[in-house]
Design a protein that fits this description.
The protein is of the alpha/beta class and 226 residues long. Helix content is 16%, strand content 39%. It is built from four helices and 13 strands. The N and C termini lie far apart (50 Å).
């Protein structure tokens, strides 16, 4: 016996509102439309919208079954999530970024994209600085930060915390900084990965980067990828 899963339907309260939501998500018009059951054909997979109240059927909205949408890049993922209600922030899980959001009707959806190193390098990000230049490490008071250090808000790394970032080329303590990623620091002996961010017009060699981050990376087996 051979099985195939070719379709799935979501219960909705307001058909027109739900259609508008998914036309925006999928960037296509609804394929079949009625007051009770409408369908989006997404590359051969049929996603149905069922107006359950019109058929007097009970339904409980929740997160026990999540349709999963895949997009081609982290930038596309972030664009799709603008203005959406997140119930699970963008998180790096092995070789993917994963997030969950809630549609116009209360259904939970997953959205994923493959982690691509070449897409990360060159990307513009805003860093919230929680360890400014000249400050001491919160646990190791003898470690003074010679550069600004912080995290990318609403972007979770594999350790379950916000993605950390070193800031180069800024010679005073700052609260936030927007720049572009020039390198990724991979640690073979730690799950964490650090991003290196600098002003748009700045460039650094691997040796120059390591010279500035060595105060912390000397405790790990680190590789700079550019």
């Amino acid at each position: 016996m051979e099985f195939h899963i070719n379709s799935l339907y979501l219960c909705v309260k307001d058909m027109d509102r739900a259609i508008n939501f998914y036309e925006d998500i999928f960037e296509q018009k609804v394929t079949e439309k009625s007051d009770i059951y409408s369908v989006f054909d997404v590359n051969g997979f049929r996603l149905g919208l069922f107006a359950f109240e019109k058929m007097n059927e009970p339904h409980t909205f929740g997160s026990n079954c999540l349709p999963s949408i895949n997009v081609d890049s982290l930038s596309s993922m972030q664009e799709k999530l603008k203005g959406k209600e997140l119930c699970f922030p963008i998180t790096r899980i092995k070789d993917n970024f994963v997030a969950e959001f809630i549609d116009s009707e209360g259904n939970h959806l997953e959205i994923t994209t493959t982690y691509k190193l070449h897409e990360i390098i060159g990307k513009n990000v805003t860093v919230t600085v929680d360890r400014p230049l000249g400050s001491a490490h919160p646990k190791y008071q003898d470690m003074i930060y010679p550069i600004n250090y912080g995290y990318i808000d609403v972007l979770m790394a594999q350790d379950g915390e916000e993605q950390d970032a070193y800031i180069l080329g800024v010679h005073e303590a700052v609260d936030t900084f927007t720049g572009h990623i020039i390198a990724v620091i991979k640690r073979s002996d730690d799950v964490e990965e650090k991003w290196v961010v600098c002003p748009e017009n700045s460039t650094f060699t691997k040796d120059e980067i390591m010279e500035q981050i060595e105060f912390q990376e000397k405790y790990f087996n680190s590789e700079i990828i550019m």
